[in-house]
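Appendix B, record 7
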Amino acid sequence: MKFQIHTKDTAPEASRAMLEATAKKYGFVPNLYGVLAGSPAAVQAYAGINKALEQSALTPVEQQVVTLTVSAANNCAYCMGAHSTVAQMVHMPEPILAELRDQRDLSDAKLNALRLLVVSVLHHRGWVPEEDLNQFTAAGYAQQHLLDVLTIVALKTLSNYTNHIAHTPLDPQFAAQSWKAKGATGG
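Structure tokens (predicted):
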């Protein structure tokens, strides 16, 4: 199946307003949004969750820790490139970004507790052991943070899987942060 990367002109009518709003917000329509626009429900869901995350208890840097951890675990080169760029925009320290891209423990203890919780959520498919939850709360996180993590996991699952199936090409705006999983041989 070949996926079309829609523009405001080619997208279904119900997706066009979302693409126009995205272009206004970012200055361009990222290829992921162009793919998702093939389904008004998908593009609106993705944009809606992103909008809802403006109310997150997680800082912008913490949100990118979650996003990059999920995307690396799912080997999503598109999201790793895009969100590495976003991480720089929200002033994530470069050593933390490098550690996330390499899927290593983070040198910041609190951010590493967040990363480890995300890894546990993914590994245990939501059945997170109490010990992992306790480490997360001991680092200073609360229930709202955990629910925000789960929201981002849902968001990134939608985008990562879409990118895998659609083979979404990385936008030129994100090319400086292109990424390939360790040991990866293909797209």
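Remarks on this record: DSSP finds nine helices and no strands in the chain. The longest helix spans residues 143-166.
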